[in-house]
Amino acid sequence: MQQKRTIVLIALAVSVVLMLAKFGAYFITTSNFILTDAAESVVNVLASAFAFFSIYLSSQPRDINHPYGHGKVEFFSVFIEGTLITIAGVTILFKSAYNLFYPHEVHNVVKGAIIIGITGAINGGLGFYMIARGKSLNSITIEADGRHLLTDMVTSGGLVVGLSLMYFLPYLWLDSVLSMGVAIYIVITGYKLIRRSVGGLMDEADFDTVEHIVKIMSDNRKDAWIDVHNLRAQNYGHEVHIDCHLTLPNYFDLIQVHEEVKSVEDLVNRDAGQHVEFFIHTDPCLPKCCHYCNMPNCPIRAEAKRIEIPWNMENTTRNAKHFELDGAV
Question: Stretch 289-306: mean pLDDT, rounded?
Fold first, then answer.
């Protein structure tokens, strides 16, 4: 958790310095085009500050009011960031539209382009670093902040190209037209972040996570694990909570059942690359399970095994034992 805080603090400090540089470029040039980048840098600072708070809160231990921990605050952090980006983009869009009809002269275009180019390069390097670290630390907040910085790099690159055009084609309306294009791009980026955060807050299915967990269990499947079904995953910050039904031989005693459940938890936590908390409901096998059961020397087998049913998204996420899946038999 200390690594996450350090990364966000670095991003916050860099964002403040770059924000001041961009506003300096705006006051030098009076360009609305540069103002789009300067306004987004304000969002960078606010987003990094809230990201630091959300990471601090998500690291707090579970309590009676938050039995699953505080990890979902990271989705809220991303929502705030996306909202701020969208507001900045819409504001700039209206201002640029106004200046399209009431243009003003732009000054010192070359100086402004140099400042913006340097800030864009710094944001790009930091953004790639934060995305990589966000994935390795399983932090949606750090990853989202990194993607925001990459967006800033792209817009800065567009600004340098646009400012170069303005230098060689000194049309007053060009500044407003280019800034409107960048503003639209900013709004789209903000929408994507909002959409992702809402999906997390609404417990939208994370198919990549589920598929990864299913593959781990399938590749290491034990004979006693007759089938897995009704598997669902929820993300709570850096943790994943999974509940599922595991069918075991009905002659297992409670100690054997407990050992099999624990072996599933240990296996997934060893290979998943992140902390996974399981809630496993165990089902006893039925005679209808025999035709796909791998259990050797079974004392209650009703018929020989005759088919192999692979574990995949289709038959592990549905709320039915494998023999109830018409397409699986």
Answer: 91
Spell out the domain ranges in the chain: 2-201, 207-328
Question: Which CATH class name applies to 2-201?
Answer: mainly alpha
Q: Could you give the C-alpha distances from 328 to 92, 207, 277, 316, in angstroms and in order?
A: 55, 20, 28, 11
**Would you say 249 and 283 are in contact if contact means Cβ atoms under 8 Å apart?**
no
Q: CA 186, CA 188: separation in Å to the nearest integer?
A: 5
Q: Which of 286, 56, 84, 275 is nearest to 191 (CA)?
A: 84
Residue 283 pairs in a beta bridge with 247
Higher pLDDT, 144 or 263: 263
Mean pLDDT value across residues 303-310: 90
What burial class does residue 44 get, using C-beta atoms within 10 Å of its C-beta: 0-12 exposed, 13-18 middle, 19+ buried? buried
C-alpha to C-alpha distance for 248 and 278, rounded to whole angstroms: 16
Q: What is the pLDDT of residue 328?
A: 41
Give the pLDDT score at 199. Answer: 73
Summary mean pLDDT of the chain? 82
**Topology (CATH level 3) of domain 207-328:** Alpha-Beta Plaits (3.30.70)
User: The pTM is what?
Assistant: 0.60
Type of residue found at 101: F
